[in-house]
Give the backbone structure.
Amino acid sequence: MKYLATIQLQKCLAPLPQSICLAEPNVISGVMGSKRRDLSALREPFHREYANCTLDRKAILMFTRQYGLLDWEGQFAGRTDLAGLKFTFHVEEWREHRANFLSAWATTSRNQKGLNWSIVPDTFPMPSTRSAWMVFDHNSLIVKGPKTLWTLTEKGPVARVYAQTSWEYLWMLLCFEQREKLRSCENPKCAAPYFIARRKDQRFCGEDCAHLIAASRWWTQHGKEWRRRRASRKAKR
């Protein structure tokens, strides 16, 4: 196979809120600030942090405070003068969008090998906007795509893809990920089950879960015999 171009996903500087709170029991609102966070420089990949965020209101509020507004509607797409602008979103909306993301994660992980371009775009929720840099008509909506800049080099064309929002960046991360690396921990009680595998045979998110399940399986298979022998030794004393 001959590759005609190189595609590179560029870092995303997510705008952070200056203030944020639970305005109502199921509504989160706040004011945008001037600070930004580089989502490509996190200790754990941003799409893993999002996939494993718990769904209670305080966790969603904390996630938004730490990583910024996802902005799935593209309200602030491409803008730089955000300080002082207000935002509001419903907790249930956040949960629904996360459920769609996890559904795509599970779908791509079941289709082994290759990148996710052939699967994810079918359900890629591009932000809707009327001030799009690149648009196409889809069911009478104007839909915004990621900004792409092309450069001609000696090795061939290079496309640099810039996500306009954190929400778009999440999906682009999923698109650029190898399918076989997107996995779910086999520990049914794992608190953060979604992970990006480092090895082909990796079945657990980390050593803690691997050891816990190994111990549990050993006790299931050998626990009864071990307790019988232990009771027998005590009886002989």
User: Anything to note?
Assistant: The longest helix spans residues 207-236.
